[in-house]
Amino acid sequence: MIPSFNKLVKQCLADLPKNDFPVLNTRLFVECWLGYAMDKSLTSMRDLFTRLNLRGIDCDVSTFSKASKQRSLEPFMKIYSRLNSQVKRKDSSNKLVICPIDTTVISLTSKLLWRLGYHQVKLISGLNLSTEGLEDNLISFGWKHDYNYGKEMIEALPANGIGVMDRGFASLTFLRESCQINKYFVVRISQLYKLEYVRDSELIKVGTGKEAGLYRLINFCDLETKREYRLVTNLPAQGEAEVNDAEVAEIYRQRWGIELLWKFLKMHLKLDELITKNPNGIAIQIYATLIAYLILHLVEIPQVWGNKLLDKLRYLQAFMCQEVSYVHWMENIVKC
After folding, report:
1. How confident is the model at residue 232, as a pLDDT?
2. For strand 227-233 and strand 184-189, is the pairing parallel, antiparallel, or unpaired?
3. CA angle 135-138-141, nearest 5°?
4. Cβ neighbours of residue 166 under 8 Å, at least 6 residues apart?
5. Per-residue pLDDT, 52
6. How far is CA 280 from the centre of its chain?
């Protein structure tokens, strides 16, 4: 087996109680969620529990559904925090690090959730591109706009972090509040905002009315798409820590890293396949997905098989299939 994976599993699960509930204890509950997130051969929880029942673990979907609705999120939060702190320790430099902040929307199709007024859930996260760890996460049910979470996400960044955000976070109120926080940011603003040049100043007046403010503004154009980008930032334009306009544009370009995160979580760790019909269970599944993502970052596999997250997931799948695949089963039959 993979030594680093064994170590991570023991670190995550060894301290969880095995006798706190009569049927589905906390350790088995967490194992089921992580197993569902990482096992690509499973398409539903019914598949998982059928497999468990056939192998002697007596638990059913009904018990699991009740547990997902009532159990505390705390065990998942503790595992997530522990793993994320390990990922962050990979980088000890004091240089500025780029931290894209973004939201991904997951549609809710259950009528039970619709009756509660929930048609979608948003995951708001900050990604540290230096360590590839997650800075902060918020889960929001409903239609609340992204900029409502911008200030909280900026405040959660490390002292050397640069929050990079798209237009969804840009509002005049958010820009004003962000400038009062002692954290760097780069925010793309809409072309609909009125701009006014101020005499004898390098700053540009953005917007109108009481919420209008003076900001450092960088304009650049993508020649291929002929799309104009307007970026507001509080990065210094002069002095020893100067960040020129071209560097600000490059910082914004790296915001795409968090879009790749969403793609991986949804395509390979089932973030887009919510299987519970209550808010607590959805929050648990989201954190189980994030834990699986962190495990893949920390696990080590032979370099010959690659070092991307997908390479690691496929490698783990190969070991998992050794226990359950028809190929290995038939091979064992032949050997007998």
Report:
1. 95
2. antiparallel
3. 160
4. 102, 187, 188, 255
5. 82
6. 18
The count of other CB atoms within 10 Å of the CB of residue 8 is 22
pLDDT of residue 267: 94
Q: Are 270 and 220 in contact (CB under 8 A)?
A: no
**Strand extents, DSSP E, the chain:** 97-107, 120-127, 134-141, 161-165, 184-189, 195-197, 204-206, 213-222, 227-233
Question: If residue 92 lies in a helix (H) or strand (E), which one and from where to where?
Answer: none
Strands 97-107 and 227-233: unpaired
| Cα–Cα–Cα angle for 248, 250, 252, rounded to 5 degrees | 70
Segments of the chain with pLDDT less than 70:
1, 90-94, 323-334, 336
**Tokens (6 digits) for 302:** 């032979």
Report d(CA 63, CA 21) in Å as an integer: 11
- Structure confidence at residue 313 (pLDDT): 92
What's residue 92's pLDDT? 54
Query: What's the rounded Cα separation, in Å, for the pair 265 and 286?
Result: 10
Residue with the two structure tokens 């048609």:
119
Q: Measured between alpha carbons, how far is 70 from 256 in angstroms, rounded to an integer?
A: 37
Structure tokens at 163: 């929050």
Structure tokens, 251: 């910082």
233 CB neighbour count, 10 Å cutoff: 23
Q: What is the pLDDT of residues 254-277, one digit of tens each?
A: 999 999 999 999 999 999 988 888
Per-residue HEC secondary structure of 113-173 comes to: HHHCCCCEEEEEEEECCCCCCEEEEEEEECCCCHHHCHHHHHHCCCCCEEEEECHHHCCHH
pLDDT number for residue 227: 85
- Measure the CA–CA gap between 149 and 169, rounded to whole angstroms: 8
User: Could you tell me if 276 and 285 are in contact, meaning their C-beta atoms sit under 8 angstroms apart?
Assistant: yes
